[in-house]
Amino acid sequence: MSSADVTLSPVRNEPSMMPLVHANSCTDSLPDETILIYLTLPGTLIPMRVLESDSIESVKLRIQSYRGFVVRNQKLVFGGRELARSNSNMRDYGVSDGNVLHLVVKVSDLQVLDVKTTCGKHCRFHVERGRNIGYVKKQISKQKGGDFVDSEVLYEGEKLEDQSLVNDICRNSDAVLHLLVRRSAKVRAKPVEKNFELSIVAPPQVDVKRAIEAADGIVQPRKQLLNDFSLEPVIVNPKAKLPEVVKDMISSASDGLRSGNPPVRSREGTGGAYFMQGSSGNKYVGVFKPIDEEPTAENNPHGLPLSPNGEGLKKGTKVGEGALREVAAYILDHPKSGRRSMCGEERGFAGVPPTTMIECLHPGFNHPNGIKTKIGSLQMFTENDGSCEDMGPASFPVEEVHKISVLDIRLANADRHGGNILMRKDENGKIVLIPIDHGYSLPESFEDCTFEWLYWSQARKPYSSETLDYIRSLDAEEDISLLKFHGWKMPSETARTLRISTMLLKKGAERGLTAFEIGNMMCRDTLTKKSLVEEMVEEAQEAVLPETSEATFMEALSDVMDYHLDEVVHV
Ligand SMILES: Nc1ncnc2c1ncn2[C@@H]1O[C@H](COP(=O)(O)OP(=O)(O)OP(=O)(O)O)[C@@H](O)[C@H]1O
């Protein structure tokens, strides 16, 4: 069934069963391939009739129409795997009668606030839901260039306390909160002859800085459990020195905990992700993703069930290895000038934010079975204006899209959707793309590779000479040694992925192929149809003896690849 067969209707209230909507919906009997599945959301089990041939997209559209969750904010998980391909169907993913699917709904960490003042000024801005009204006042003061710190903020006629959290006021994630800001003033009346003179006295000037500091808000009470925390880098090889920028991030996050600013859990994403605050409490300095809170890991805060076989949500990845992959993506994102120096602040070619492995103890993480130290990745928080999901791709600069494509092809990224590319405008107003969330990069197989940028026009433009120089400088063997040096005992299958994808990128770029042409060879059109790179690997495997060395296999693959690429070039 295609998405065109789906009837959209207004959001209904808690239907007991989502009805089947199919091409022959006017007939009484249900088609043979009808199955009954159950969707779980924390605390709810929703029965739903679907056809085995229903596409993932059409099922999500029905969830949207009956439950109100926008399609792009839904993630469906079955048997420990994300049903990520919208054009594949239920049968392709092995979903059958009676199966339970987990629905994870992405809720934005940001809330749109509309603020109106009594004198008619209006402003709109995004604020993190963990902030309180005191913080909102500070933002209004900044934007409107006044001092609103001691003003009153009303919502639906009720005065809001400075400590009230935006999240508590705005329960509905899609709601736009209207605030009325009223400057408080004392009205005094003093008799002057037979009349009264009215004077409006603005409150005395406050120490704005102090007031702003006091108004900065966060989810949990501050100054809590000051000694009950620790944050240390995990260093496997003492010879692998941490770059200064990483050391600074660790010490800022540690200072934040020491100052009583707890981690703030992100509401987005399928795993546990925590914004680590600096010492002032008004700045995020890092994002911590503990390995035991990854999707389908034992302490996942979204209630996803344990992985049945240890495999992650994407094929060829393992639960608990997301943090390693996040760190590997940073280490392998070499700067244009060559390999990253340990003291410089140099960003890599693709701009992966500095990422490292840490161990951290804090009661603010998800600890259903007692408070324990957690290991995970800490990535530098990057100020941004949203993600690529929030904006059409037309305005993204070509070279920004190309740098992400080079990274994704090298790492055979299995999770490159628009939500995993942050964007911000630099001082000249130019859009900069920031790749994040590399927990499903370097998989052991190519099955789940997906690159959102394949559908962007920039990917069809030729690589610049600068990008081609960078691609030429890449060396998979050197990369494998570098990861080993940093302590990742990479399985041979993962090392092979890196070798193959680097080889494909280099050979493709050498022949003048575009990011689209190379990336397309790595991605399956449908769940069941192998990609060209998978076919090439199979051909090379058939050409060598089973016990052959890795070097011989790679030589055979090189010949197979040359043959196929030359065919593409000559078409
Ligand atoms: N380096 C960063 N700088 C700023 N914000 C970040 C950074 N890394 C992650 N975030 C934000 O943190 C939130 C959760 O992160 P992320 O989406 O990576 O988590 P996840 O559970 O791995 O997600 P997914 O379900 O897409 O795999 C998102 O809102 C994301 O935009």
From TrEMBL:
Per its UniProt record, what SMART domains does this chain match?
A: UBQ (SM00213)
Chain ranges of the Ubiquitin-like domain: 37-106, 113-186
Q: Work out whether the entry's keyword set contains Transferase.
A: yes
Q: Which GO terms describe its molecular function?
A: 1-phosphatidylinositol 4-kinase activity; ATP binding
Q: Per the database record, which ranges form the PI3K/PI4K catalytic domain?
A: 260-552
**Pfam assignment, any one:** ubiquitin
Keyword Metal-binding present in the record's keywords: the answer is: no
Keyword list (alphabetical) reads: ATP-binding, Kinase, Nucleotide-binding, Repeat, Transferase
Q: Which domain of life is it from?
A: Eukaryota
- This chain belongs to the protein called 1-phosphatidylinositol 4-kinase
